[in-house]
Amino acid sequence: MAISLKKGGTFNLSKKEPGLEKIMIGLGWEVKPGNSVDLDASVFMLGSNGKLISEEYFVFYNNLKSPDGSLQHTGDNRSGKGDDDDEMILANMPLINADVTEILITVSIHEADARRHNFGLLDEAYIRIVDVSTQREILRYDLDAEFTNNTDVEFGKLHRASGEWSFIASGIGSNQGLQGYVDAYA
């Protein structure tokens, strides 16, 4: 049975899932009836200074794979239709560059200001981690907060300390857009 995290909750993957190597980070949401919203999942692979270790470690719809081969974005889902994960990130944990101490996962609405879209048009947003080898869901964080006035949300992050990886359920909304995240972490 998967662990259900609440906002701010932490799960030590290294201690509770020893031997875990390949994971799928699934992100999902439901668009409220009568609406159409294009969301983009992005990943920032950060060093100890809180910045990208290099520009190529920003993984998103225009850069689907990290240079170390550890992370792969499976592509942009422009409609959010369907019951499964809307966007997925595949991670091979042993291959992650040793300089990466944090992997930040965000979701932003494409052209939110121009289209006047926000997270209030969505229901049931979540992030989950699945063991690729067994297809077992390890943990899930259902974003229980309302982000009605936000155009983007930091869903969660993987944090490495003393050689151990933990997942932190962030759930932090903002209106900085994808460019705002790039400006903060580049």
Walk me through this protein's architecture:
The chain is mostly beta strands and 186 residues long. It has one domain: sav2460 like domains (Lipoxygenase-1). 9% of the residues lie in helices and 44% in strands. It contains three helices and twelve strands; from the N terminus they run ββαββββββαββββα. It has a six-stranded mixed β-sheet, with no helix packed on it. Strands 2-12-11-8-4-5 form a six-stranded antiparallel β-sheet. Strand 9 and strand 10 (136-142) form a beta hairpin. The longest helix has 9 residues, at 177-185. The protein is globular and about 45 Å long. It starts with a strand and ends with a helix. 35% of the residues are buried.
Short summary:
The chain has 3 helices and 12 strands, in the order ββαββββββαββββα. It has helices at 13-16, 112-115, 177-185; strands at residues 3-5, 10-12, 22-31, 39-46, 58-59, 71-73, 87-92, 102-109, 122-131, 136-142, 152-161, 164-174. Residues 1-185 form the TerD domain.
